[in-house]
Amino acid sequence: MLDESDIRVAGQASNVGQALEQLQQGRFSLVLLDINLEGRSGLDLLASIRIKWPRLPVLVLSMYPETQYALVAIREGANGYVAKDAEPSELMGAIRQVAAGGQYVGHRIASQLHEQAVGLDTRPPHQRLTMREHQIMLMLLKGMSLTHIGEEMLISVKTVSTHRANLLEKLGVASTAELVLYAVRNGLIH
């Protein structure tokens, strides 16, 4: 747990439903959000937070490397992103900065944002996916069927299939098997 006098953990949740329930019952000054939650993705929770509590600061803390997932989270409304392997001092600084109304990104992400702004976007294709495509890619990589993904995301199988086709095209792969190979080659899965 945190050992900081100015920071207090007011709740914990392991899935989107628990988190939404706690958010509805309490007052929070910041959400420290993990992308990898049980069931639905933390990015789904982020989307719900942006709808119901648009001004609530959200700092994403994730095991996924900044260069692969931070831009997706920021694009979808996160106020900051910190990798789980960051130094404790960096995490505490990010929490304080985001809770005070600021934004936080590490140096690698700041550099990528600058490149995008000046038209030098050199990101690999997987970093250009939409939030939905990204979520579906992660679920496909977990071996979930299109039907199961639709049930989890509360969308039709046809919509899932469309997103799958779009993400496969963007990544230049023709099948889920090729998607797995792409993910391994690009360090998206181990």
Q: What's the arrangement of secondary structure elements?
A:
Layout: H1 16-25, E1 31-33, H2 42-52, E2 58-62, H3 66-75, E3 80-83, H4 88-99, H5 107-117, H6 131-141, H7 146-153, H8 157-171, H9 176-185
Parallel strand pairs: 1-2, 2-3
Quick overview of this protein structure:
This protein is 52% helix and 6% strand. By secondary structure, the chain is mainly alpha-helical.
Task: Give structural notes.
With 190 residues, the chain is mostly helical. 52% of the residues lie in helices and 6% in strands. It contains 9 helices and 3 strands, in the order H-E-H-E-H-E-H-H-H-H-H-H. The chain has a 3-stranded parallel sheet, sandwiched between helices. The protein is globular and about 50 Å long. The two termini are 28 Å apart.
Largest sheet: 3 strands, parallel
- The percent range for strand residues is 5-15%
What sequence of helices (H) and strands (E) makes up the elements? HEHEHEHHHHHH
The outline comes out as: globular
Strand order of the largest sheet: 1-2-3
N-to-C terminal Cα separation, in Å?
28 Å
The count of helical stretches stands at 9
